[in-house]
Amino acid sequence: MSDYFKDIPTIKYEGRDSTNPLSFKFYDANKKILGKTLEEHLRMAVCYWHTFNWPGGDPFGGQTFLRPWMESGDKIEQAKDKLNNAFEFFEKLGIPYFCFHDVDIAPEGESFSETEKIQKTIVDEISKKLETSKVKLLWGTANLFSHRRYMSGAATNPDPDVFQYAAAQVKMCMENTMFLGGQNYVLWGGREGYETILNTNMKQEYDQLGRFLNMVAEHKHKIGFKGLLLIEPKPHEPTKHQYDFDSANVFAFLQKYGLEREFKLNIEQNHAILAKHSFEHEIAYALSNDIFGSIDINRGDYLVGWDTDQFPNNVEELVLPFYYIFKNGGFSSGGLNMDAKIRRQSIDPEDLFYAHIGSMDTCARTLIAVEKMINDGSYENFLKQRYEQWASEKQLMTSMSLEDIHKNVIAKNINPQPKSGRQEYLENLINSFVD
Ligand code: XUL
Ligand code: CO
């Protein structure tokens, strides 16, 4: 077994004046913010796939990361080696959660039943580790997009056998997630969409997805899984037209198929940007429709149009998303999964630590700013005042008709005067809370 992180010490909080790059400057896990500790509020998770599986490739070149568990050899032994190193990473970082796809933790077998046995072997190993570790599972998910069987979709595949294979995989993965004490189960529809309408029956595919997700919800109740079921919207990539484009699109879909009380959303920063929304837009939409669940935190590159999944390091960008989340009480069983990968030139073990430390610090620093913003109250008051006249005009939303209003406008000589939207004032106000 390898010891890939042996030269890295346990990461401690040393405060903002520390010059030690392997220390937290802001993430003091036990610091109380808005009534809870930073750790309890942020519920941060390492994502297994980007941190331990991703080899550093890009469309022009392959692997740049040389991790011991990526070398040739027995695949199950490598999965165990990866797991040992992953837990050492979690412990040294002091992170409370992790997330995984089934295929991240163990190789696939020749048949579904062999795959299921291999999964069980590694899931049992994870279970042993969880007994002695403080780390917990934030969520599990089935990878229904990497294998070539899923090239034309999983639940939305024209071939019913693929639909069945995907359903069996989700059953297995949801049960394993529950067995490991996972707090949520995520579904990202990586291949649920299409490349060209020429070969696509869109209504049939949507109906398949609706049926599939109804079965997922039924199974959750059958096995007594108490966590949230979360759908992760994304507009494009890998398919050109994804069926779960953004929060609003997923909400419409859920309502059509009677699922709006069964699923909440896992909203990802980089996906929001690809949908030409802001992260805060997606979060505010989900909150206002009671479908907010969890977030995948990363950032895109504003100069390129694809999902670069970079670690977050910009406090200003996160203030409004965090404001919405924490003003509304914060996470219930959801949390903050770092769905982010280091750059392909960042090939050393310490690079993985720098990335995670930086993003934990960024999130802590943002929450500290948001606490000030909430306690100060002037932003909240601004919004209240902007809409306060509606409190005395309730009949406009209930009993009045166009005819009534028409009479009213004439009788009262209503002649609205524009008022400033105060954008620059608000931008300055928000900045004043960031240290
Ligand atoms: C892909 C993505 C996934 C999901 C889990 O863009 O975000 O990693 O988070 O399948
Ligand atoms: Co994601």
Summarize the structure.
This protein is 45% helix and 11% strand.
Cα gyration radius (Å): 24 Å
What's the overall geometry? globular
Order of helices and strands: EEEEHEHHEHHEHEEHEEHEHHEHEHHHH
Q: Kindly report the name of the CATH homologous superfamily of the largest domain.
A: Divalent-metal-dependent TIM barrel enzymes
What share of residues is helical? 40-55%
Rounded mean pLDDT score: 97
Detailed description of the structure:
The model has no long low-confidence stretch (mean pLDDT 97). Strand 13, helix 11 (315-327) and strand 14 form a beta-alpha-beta unit. This protein has helices at residues 38-42, 48-53, 75-93, 102-105, 112-132, 160-179, 202-223, 247-256, 269-274, 279-288, 315-327, 349-376, 378-387, 402-411, 423-432, and strands at residues 12-13, 23-24, 32-33, 36-37, 44-47, 97-101, 136-141, 184-187, 193-194, 228-231, 241-242, 263-268, 292-296, 336-338. It is an alpha/beta fold. Helix 6 packs parallel to helix 7 and helix 10 (279-288) packs parallel to helix 11. It contains 15 helices and 14 strands. The relative contact order is 0.11. The chain folds into two domains: 12-376, TIM Barrel (Alpha-Beta Barrel), CATH 3.20.20.150; 393-432, no CATH class. The longest helix has 28 residues, at 349-376. Strands 5-6-7-8-10-12-13-14 form an eight-stranded parallel β-barrel, surrounded by four helices. Strands 1-2 form a two-stranded parallel ribbon. A two-stranded antiparallel ribbon has the order 3-4. The structure holds D-xylulose and cobalt (II) ion.
